């Protein structure tokens, strides 16, 4: 039995030596550090404020002290008059929210309505257009923008 035990010990040592040799380069063992676990970046929640009071047709997104990505839902009263707006679908933050909402076809001057908008960073070029009886102006680079948010929670852009 001693020969078999000795034979098994030699065989195990030989296997260990082969494994260690195959894991080394020039006799030096190479150790690999484990990769850190992959963690998906957590998206920041969208902050939405619902403002219960009615606003005038001249109210602008710049009148709100919101941060980029913050959303507001406001009530625009019926019987509005057009105010100046710059852009199409993406408006400068000094554009009238109510007039821009009519331009996008979301509300009318006669009936007003509830709209949700999101504060965005400015862009390099705002393109004017005529839609729904409202003409918006073109403008170069501006520091702040806003877009309207539809019922699905995404920007209304067309």
From TrEMBL:
Q: Which residues cross the membrane?
A: none
Every copy of the LCCL domain together lies at 85-146
The superkingdom of the source organism is Bacteria
PANTHER family given in the database record: CYSTEINE RICH SECRETORY PROTEIN LCCL DOMAIN CONTAINING 2 (PTHR31331:SF1), LCCL DOMAIN PROTEIN (AFU_ORTHOLOGUE AFUA_5G08630) (PTHR31331)
Originating species: Sphaerochaeta pleomorpha (strain ATCC BAA-1885 / DSM 22778 / Grapes)
| InterPro entries reported for this sequence | CRISP-LCCL_domain, LCCL, LCCL_sf
Entries under SMART domains matching the protein? LCCL
**What name has this protein been given in UniProt?**
LCCL domain protein
Tell me, what's a Pfam family for it? LCCL
